[in-house]
Amino acid sequence: QVTLKESGPVLVKPTETLTLTCTVSGFSLSNARVGVSWMRQPPGKALEWLAHIFSSDRKVYNTSLRSRLTISRDTSKSQVVLVMTNVDPVDTATYYCTRVQEGSESHAFDYWGRGTLVTVSS
Amino acid sequence: DIQMTQSPSSLSASVGDRVTFTCRASQAFGTSLAWYQQKPGKSPEVLIYAISTLQSGVPSRFSGSGSGTDFTLTISSLQPEDVATYYCQKYDDAPLTFGGGTKVEIK
After folding, report:
1. What is the pLDDT of residue B10?
2. Is residue B96 pLDDT above 80, yes or no?
3. Can the peptide bond before residue A43 be classed as cis, meaning omega within 30 degrees of 0?
4. How far is CA A119 from CA A10, A92, A116, B30, in A?
5. What mean pLDDT comes out for the span B9-26?
6. What is d(CA B36, CA B43) in angstroms, rounded to the nearest whole number?
7. Residue in B34, B43, B100 closest to A108 by CB
8. How far apart are CA B107 and CA B92, in angstroms?
9. With bands split at pLDDT 50, 70 and 90, how would you rate the model's confidence at A103?
10. Contact (CB<8Å) B91/A113
11. Distance between CA atoms of A24 and A89, rounded to whole angstroms?
């Protein structure tokens, strides 16, 4: 059974660094042709893609947030980590991690975590 | 970057109505186009991938079509459980852009 679970702080102060962890199970980050993305959704607003790590370890980022984001993975821990620097109240959102099978087997982002709400406030 | 524009932003229809909403890309990118349904307070779920392929378990009243830059999602007979916001997304390569969503309500 494939699952993804986000974890991280509930409250972060402006200018601080936010670190979010996605722990996956039911598939291997090192063996499967699977990539993992982080998305977010401010309250009442649309989904926004943030960053993606491919099975090859190639990383891609949202153009407007690129300078503040770092995505990485620890295959031994089955975790994908997103670091966002210099947070602002506009970064208040529910953050989701989700996976996609690569290549011809892709069904788009077929498994999502339940999301974690992060509030940026002093 | 490719932009994805959805229309309308919201719609209200009666149970049993056929509803169609659209997603337009600022340039063509291939066939990696997906539609997601997000119910209030829940995570998104994929309905359709590769423009028109129904995800396993999704009711057959949902269908997708399109090519190039214009794509559509159709619900052939709207049901109360279809109240949700629907998003399109290109998922081939960066940026993995979402449309702004279409919120569906029942009259």
Report:
1. 97
2. yes
3. no
4. 6, 5, 10, 37
5. 97
6. 10
7. B34
8. 36
9. confident
10. no
11. 28
Q: Which segment of A83-87, A102-106, B12-16, B26-30 scores lowest on mean pLDDT?
A: A102-106
Q: What SS3 string covers chain B? A: CCCEEEECCEEEECCCCCEEEEEEECCCCCCCEEEEEECCCCCCEEEEECCCEECCCCCCCEEEEEECCEEEEEECCCCHHHCEEEEEEECCCCCCCECCCEEEEEC
Contact criterion met (CB below 8 Å) for B96 and B89: yes
**Location of structure tokens 């995570």:** B43
Identify the CA nearest to A36 among candidates A76, A73, A9.
A73
Q: Residue B32 and residue A108: Cβ atoms within 8 Å? A: yes
Average pLDDT over residues A12-33: 94
Under a CB-based contact definition with an 8 Å cutoff, are residues B87 and B36 in contact?
yes
Q: Which residues make Cβ contacts (< 8 Å) with residue A119, sequence separation at least 6?
A: A10, A11, A12, A92
- B55 shares contact with chain A (CB less than 8 Å): yes
**Cα separation of A97 and A40, whole Å?**
9
* Residue in chain B nearest A96 by alpha carbon: B43
Instruction: Tell me whether residues B87 and A46 touch, CB distance under 8 A.
Output: yes
The model's confidence at residue B49, banded by pLDDT at 50, 70 and 90, is: very high
User: Which residue, among B91, B102, B103, would best test binding to A if mutated, counting the most A CBs under 10 Å from its CB?
Assistant: B91
CA atoms of A86 and A13, how far apart (whole Å): 9
User: At A106, is the pLDDT very low, low, confident or very high (cuts 50, 70, 90)?
Assistant: confident
